[in-house]
## 1
Amino acid sequence: MSERPWSVLELVRWTTGFFKQHGIDSARLDSEVLLAHVLDCSRMDLYTSFDQPVSQGDRGRFRELVRRRAKERVPLAYLTGVREFWSLPLRVTPDVLVPRPDTETLVRACAGLGPGRVLDVGTGSGCVALALARELPAATLLASDVSPAALALARANAAALELEARIDWRDADLLDGIDGAFDVIVSNPPYIPSAEIERLAPEVQQEPRLALDGGADGLDVIRRLVRGASARLAPGGWLLLEVGAGQADAVEVLLREAGAVELARHADLAGIERVIGGRFA
Ligand SMILES: C[S@@+](CC[C@H](N)C(=O)[O-])C[C@H]1O[C@@H](n2cnc3c(N)ncnc32)[C@H](O)[C@@H]1O
């Protein structure tokens, strides 16, 4: 990028080409999001100021973000520090998984049960617990994580959304030290097989290992959760788990072995079986 004045549109076009050369799929979107972030405006605002010049200072800040996105493959949300989930603006940092649209399937499945007492295990940014707090005004919510940094961020997100009074927080290793009885235990646990992580996109590899790594077959954490769930559920309560593509059959076996009396599966928007639930008597 030379030092002559660049317009918004020129910067977006140049950056889109640069991102494409570096193999970034959502090149145009990413360049617009980063420029809107630097100019502190919405993407829509960019469209009404395409011919406006961008100041040298803003261009310098933008250039640095573009470099980190293209060369270091830093996830977009870590560069802007925000990600929308269930229409809630959430702060995200490298301490937490970037909330995925797939995980809204878990929120939908849980909200559909209309539970009164909900536990969100491995809350990360707090996205699931916060969406449920919004969706279920009468529910009591407890959210846990084994990462203190994640819990701190989740609490900050709750405060920013004025939902802090709705959720209790617990630093806990899965269900250890958590007393029942919940109507639903919901979790998006780490479920990627350890050996697969290095084959994933470079962006994913910058997310916390603790949020991704599910052990040799990806099911280590899920196995522990399934084994412990019934003792923490009220009679008739559900354990709802997000799972990886192709894992639902194996998790169904685990749920049956643990005594689930009813099972339910929910597909995400791509048609992948993303959530599996088991009801315990
Ligand atoms: C896949 S991330 C999900 C984060 C968030 N719920 C979401 O859907 O974006 C898994 C989360 O589980 C947490 N976690 C991993 N092992 C855990 C354990 N043994 N006990 C509690 N939380 C754990 C991680 O710190 C991470 O925040």
## 2
Amino acid sequence: MTTAKVALVTAAAGAGIGAAVARQLAQDGMDVVITDAHERRAAEFAEQLGQECGTSFAAYALDVTDFDRVGEVVNDVVARKGRLDVLVNNAGWSKIAPLAEMDRETWLRCIDVDLNGTFNCMRHALPQMIEQHSGAIVNISSIAAWETSKEHGAAYSAAKSGVHALTRVAAAENGKHGIRVNAVAPGLIYNDFLRKIYPDDFFSGYIENKSLLERVGEPQDIANIVSFLVSERAGYITGEVYGVSGGVCPGG
Ligand SMILES: NC(=O)c1ccc[n+]([C@@H]2O[C@H](COP(=O)([O-])OP(=O)(O)OC[C@H]3O[C@@H](n4cnc5c(N)ncnc54)[C@H](O)[C@@H]3O)[C@@H](O)[C@H]2O)c1
């Protein structure tokens, strides 16, 4: 059993936001549970983070689209640590194609990872948080949810819009249980893997012509707001969606 707050982060062992969020929450003193679809990377990242922080962190192979596996992992975390205080739904997937040419598999996969995956994790975490009468959930969405743009593709934009609705309803239903639910909608948070998703012209001129702050976002920009949103300092904030895009696409 642990006395620290227990935080489960999905897709925590990649090149971007999930790992930065996990590291920040660990630095905030939380007992972070590293989960990722990629089993080896999850174990390696948990090991690395443990060395950095002088402690040890649990790692689980977890594909968020697998409803039953999400339940198993949440149950195991609660059995071992006695609680679950924070859930960060970071897993996302995207393949861009115009709607008129989008294959059905792309649509279904995107909805499954980005929207159903978020549902799966909230569905299993909420009963435990209700029992504890406390909890904080942050869903990582995207400015694609509200941007009128050809850049992100309909499946991703629709899935992330769904995440906003899911966030607001979950907040409405669970405030009385002491649970806060918010979303963060990043703009471009650069990592090299994005080159496989977006064409080169998406990146060209981004710093000069799009970002009001003349830079791309960094994973730490998202880790900072997640750290705040799950803390007591954000105790009166729920049902909100925060854009973090360097002013590229404010509002929502
Ligand atoms: N990077 C950006 O510019 C950007 C912008 C807006 C929104 N987002 C959102 O932020 C989140 C993180 O994106 P990122 O680019 O920082 O990547 P990341 O590095 O945080 O995540 C990549 C990781 O996701 C894991 N993953 C993929 N599918 C999974 C699944 N089904 N279940 C569990 N894990 C899975 C991969 O194994 C990989 O380790 C996503 O939800 C993404 O849609 C990213």
